Amino acid sequence: MLADNYAWILHNGVDAAVVDPGDAEPVLRFLERVKLRLSHVFITHHHADHCAGAVELKRAFGCPVIGPDDVRVPYVDHAVRDYGGFSVLSESLQVMATPGHTMTHVIFHFPNLRAIFTGDTLFCGGCGRILEGTPAVMLQSLIKCIGVEDITSVYCGHEYTEENLLFATTVEPDNKDVWQRLADVKYLQRRNLPTVPSTIAVERATNPFLRTGSPELRKKLGMQSATGVDVFAELRKRKDRF
After folding, report:
1. How far is Cα 127 from Cα 142, in angstroms, rounded to an integer?
2. Strand bridging mode 115-119 / 153-156
3. Residue 166: enclosing H or E segment and its boundaries?
4. For every residue of 65-113, which 3-state class applies, written as one string?
5. Residue 102: which of 77, 82, 119 has the closest Cα?
6. pLDDT surpassing 90 at residue 83
7. What is the distance between the alpha carbons of residues 34 and 212, in angstroms, rounded to a whole number?
8. pTM above 0.70, yes or no
9. Looking at the annotation, which residues are catalytic?
10. Distance (Å, rounded) from C-alpha 162 to C-alpha 125?
11. Closest alpha carbon to 163 in 208, 230, 100, 212
12. Helix, strand counts (H, E) of the chain
């Protein structure tokens, strides 16, 4: 939806939950087409491209909105940070606070479904811009994201994968996994197919923001003896200019 956003719908054949509805209309059309009733709206942060459709969906279905504890989203019914007590569509849900892109950003992990919805914290091949936090805060949030099973699918908020991997080739040019993934992503993009989801294992192998300890990456940056936070900060600075 919008230019390059994703909203994600989970359902059990009758009821559904939506994550990050930046626009209500595509969600409403989908729910009508497949005859689903919306029971929950989840938002990861206050930016309009992730939550602008929440109020309309809440009004249409009378369902609660679950999201960050932030005055910028006053329509949230259940404000959450780190929380593990939800059951949604009969599935357990763990909420994780992941500040950095925004200071109240949260992500949603469904352990039994092996799915994690990362908004603008962890992208496929990259990470979100640091708009309200610090490099140290953002890196800690990314470490939190990957503290789940390697086979967990990563559902992020944007279709940025090709650009992210092109950047990855500039900082870790001998990483064969990056080049193979980039080729796979280009194949999908030429056919107008999504490159999301990824998996935690794939992100560990190819996402430079998760690879601050890579000797090759550190050598390329000229930061062999730097801290992980300093390496991450330099990567983010370079990606902002890429």
Report:
1. 8
2. parallel
3. helix 161-171
4. EEEECCCCCCCCCEEECCEEEEEECCEEEEEEECCCCCCCCEEEEECCC
5. 119
6. no
7. 43
8. yes
9. 45, 47, 49-50, 101, 120, 158
10. 8
11. 208
12. 9, 13
